[in-house]
Amino acid sequence: MDISAYKGIHVFCETSKGKIIENSLELLGEATVLKSKLSHNPEVTAVVIGHQLDQYTDLLGEHGADRIILIDDAKYAQYRPDFYAEALAETCKEYKPEIVLVGATLKGEEIGPTAAKILDTGMAAHCVELNIREDGQFVQVVPAFGGKVLGDILCPNYRPQMASMKAGLATKQQFSGQKAVVEAFSPDIKGFGDKIEVLEVIEEVKEKVSLGGAELVVTGGFGIGTQDGWQKLEVLASKLNGVTGCTRPALDEGWTEHEETMIGTSGVAIKPKVYLGFGISGAAHHTCGIKTAGLIISVNRDANAPIFDVSDYKVVGDWEAIVDALIEAL
Ligand SMILES: Cc1cc2nc3c(=O)[nH]c(=O)nc-3n(C[C@H](O)[C@H](O)[C@H](O)COP(=O)(O)OP(=O)(O)OC[C@H]3O[C@@H](n4cnc5c(N)ncnc54)[C@H](O)[C@@H]3O)c2cc1C
């Protein structure tokens, strides 16, 4: 593969309910940061797939896109992973970007790897950081070995280099008044043809807890031990006007049914003023989701727990005794 033929950074910009999602705007911002670190000043291109897309161009320009590729057709009005992934792959074949960023969303997690397979290249999923090395190599940082280490993933021999990232890890950038060059692209895609027919779209209506705007998050981990213990965290959170968040094991145990409150690589990244963590070891898969939290206070009975390395206040002790005392005091 002649990798020197590949130039520019593409960001797959996802739409939902008539809007470009925040995750995509953050990735556009991330692309502008990567661009500033690359000596050949590559173009940042937003790739949008769907129908009636003209409405998005101003917003994408103002968030960092130099160019926008619109793949606009009635056949993309309903989301179909086969169509979208093939269209993204065809865009890469035509425009030859060196880097492609995709949101680690339900759609992105289908489209990104499928396009990577079509293109016979690699994709680093759920990156927590993206960087450019001094020699210009794109570095995709991913937690590995159960979150105990952060690994640098490189894709030196294939293009494009593809990465996905969750919402909340990258930062939006504003380029007021920046107008991007808009191009229409109509790839000849087949997907699974008429083997798939969308009959109806049924949206699951479930009450969701949002950690996005929460100022205080009481987070519980596997150390909580029981459902009854979890209820104490709920009481504490409500007394503090906060919400509860969880680690993967606490969710797997079923102590909370709110999947959307799992914090970390496969969950959400949060920015509360205060994070209060109880019975959490501090695996990188979790702590990457609290990198931008304000004050981090952790309680763990193990004085050597890694969570203490990222905490402002450390309490070595039994979580339950501390939560009981806090509830009593409040
Ligand atoms: C691909 C992948 C993605 C992942 N994504 C995520 C993710 O998004 N979010 C996430 O959270 N995890 C994720 N994980 C799992 C992650 O690697 C860790 O296993 C998990 O974060 C550990 O959760 P924990 O700290 O609750 O449990 P543990 O690691 O079991 O830690 C429990 C802690 O509780 C302490 N403890 C026990 N009893 C008490 C007590 N009475 N009082 C005080 N402290 C006590 C212990 O000392 C221990 O430190 C992922 C893993 C993989 C492989």
Automatic annotation (TrEMBL):
Q: Which Pfam families match?
A: ETF, ETF_alpha
* Domain Electron transfer flavoprotein alpha/beta-subunit N-terminal span(s) in chain numbering: 9-196
InterPro entries found in the cross-reference section: DHS-like_NAD/FAD-binding_dom (IPR029035), ETF_a/b_N (IPR014730), ETF_a/FixB (IPR001308), ETF_alpha_N (IPR033947), ETF_asu_C (IPR014731), Rossmann-like_a/b/a_fold (IPR014729)
The protein's UniProt keywords, in alphabetical order, are:
Flavoprotein
Q: Which family does it belong to?
A: Belongs to the ETF alpha-subunit/FixB family.
Which PANTHER family does this one have?
Answer: ELECTRON TRANSFER FLAVOPROTEIN ALPHA, ELECTRON TRANSFER FLAVOPROTEIN SUBUNIT ALPHA, MITOCHONDRIAL
Put simply, this protein is called Electron transfer flavoprotein subunit alpha/FixB family protein
